[in-house]
Write a structure and sequence with these properties.
four-stranded antiparallel β-sheet, alpha/beta, 16 strands
């Protein structure tokens, strides 16, 4: 088992705070090059921690990838493919939260659990989670100061930390709703009233692929998908686009403030020097690219996520690094378990990130990964594929006949030119198709 460079053999395991946002695309952070959004507290974690610049989810939808995150497994193994199925007792026992509680950690879950009932209330020392989407404001409240869900979840997290002591390590999972849309609401991304003036004078750059031509270049079934339906109520004209993205960024800044509050509380309680903070999101999100909204499909905007690991025990030379290795959401679970000096259950399929945190160049690290999206929805075609450092192969398996795509990400980073029917790439296409079959079998 890897030991962090600054860790003392036999020393007590660290506290762990895992902050998971909802639908936050990988570049909706200042530290990842966004010129508009303000995220100083999260950026500070990146500047003193490790920022993974090629992090991906394995299924881009809330409930299913939350199951992937906590179990460290692809959907093909954990078999949770809807919003109603809960983790079994056996699955929870082999999750990172279950393992850490067995190790003597005080465990707390605050926010959007996202999986089906019954909720695992008895499996945590403190459980303040919910299974549905949640409301940004109480029913009938148009948005009064102090009532925003992000701030409420932040307050509950601070209360959990107030109940912790230095005599027992703790795990806090803070899962925000933000910046997920309030589906069906007149204002899709309602921010905290305190943030209404944020970004008021900003001009949000429009994505290069947010054009009618790019939309018409999509296959017809994507043009008629749920992603286009949601585009119409979020991005259909220039004014709507500016307002929607500004609200989305306001929600992100609200999360950033809570991150700052958590860091301050850790310092106040004397926990800061022994608490690892992990920050990520459950999946990516389209902000109008290809004329789409939502996620689900295999475009980069949908499958890439932010991932930061801040460990105060790392030596100074190990901080502020950017790691380009391909990492996955299923890697979070084994990483948390190894941080806690526990054994990783054999059912987990992810890789611990500790060698990368240590600055090592581990041999045999993955150079491609399998993506799957098998959630049943009439407006969301089922998808699977494989992505490596240069190529992406996608197939829409619920379309008859199956529709396939091949993109050269090195020369076509916006995924504008489908090479699947180009005879010059037949050999590459066939190799990736076979590799997709192989990985699908391995992920069961």
């Amino acid at each position: 088992m890897a030991v962090l460079p600054s860790a003392v053999p036999g020393a007590s395991p660290p506290n762990i705070v895992f902050i998971l946002t909802d639908d936050q695309r990988f570049d909706a952070l200042g530290c990842l090059g966004n010129p508009v959004v303000r995220t100083p507290h999260i950026d500070a974690l990146a500047s003193q921690g490790v920022l993974f610049t090629n992090a991906f989810c394995t299924t881009s939808i809330c409930a299913i990838n939350r199951a992937c995150l906590i179990t460290g497994q692809w959907e093909r193994r954990h078999r949770i493919d809807d919003f109603n199925t809960p983790l079994s007792s056996e699955q929870f026992a082999a999750s990172f939260a279950g393992v850490l509680r067995q190790q003597g950690y005080r465990t707390g879950m605050v926010g959007k659990w996202g999986l089906g009932d019954p909720l695992p209330r008895d499996q945590y020392d403190v459980f303040e989670g919910y299974s549905g989407q949640g409301r940004y404001f109480p029913a009938g409240n148009d948005g009064l100061p102090g009532e925003h869900l992000t701030q409420k979840l932040g307050a509950k997290s601070l209360a959990f930390l107030d109940g912790c002591t230095s005599q027992q390590p703790f795990l806090l999972q803070l899962y925000t709703k933000a910046p997920h849309a309030a589906d069906g609401a007149a204002r899709p991304f309602p921010p905290d009233p305190r943030h209404e003036s944020l970004y008021a004078d900003a001009v949000i750059p429009v994505p290069a692929t947010a054009t009618e031509k790019h939309f018409r270049d999509l296959p017809v079934f994507l043009q008629n998908s749920e992603a286009r339906t949601r585009w119409r109520v979020r991005f259909a004209n220039a004014e709507m686009y500016q307002n929607t993205v500004k609200d989305y960024y306001r929600l992100v800044t609200g999360v950033d403030e809570v991150v700052g509050d958590v860091v301050a509380k850790l310092k106040e309680k004397g926990f800061a020097e022994n608490t690892v903070i992990i920050f990520s999101s459950d999946n990516g999100f389209y902000l109008g690219e290809h004329g789409l909204a939502g996620k689900w499909f295999m475009h980069e905007e949908s499958i890439r996520v932010p991932l930061i690991v801040y460990d105060p025990r790392l030596p100074e030379r190990g901080r502020g690094r950017r790691v380009a290795h391909m990492v996955l959401s299923i890697d979070v679970a084994p990483t948390i378990i190894e941080l806690a000096n526990a054994g990783v259950p054999s059912v987990m399929q992810g890789k611990s990130l500790i060698p990368l945190l240590n600055g090592q160049q581990p041999g045999g690290w993955r150079d491609d990964f399998f993506y799957e999206h098998r959630f049943a929805h009439p407006g969301i075609p089922k998808t699977e594929g494989v992505r490596n450092s240069r190529w992406k192969y996608t197939r829409y398996i619920s379309i008859d006949p199956v529709y396939e795509e091949l993109f050269d990400l090195e020369n076509d980073r916006h995924e504008e030119h489908n090479l699947a029917g180009d005879a010059r790439y037949t050999e590459r296409f066939n190799k990736l198709r076979s590799r997709c079959d192989e990985l699908a079998r391995q992920c069961e």
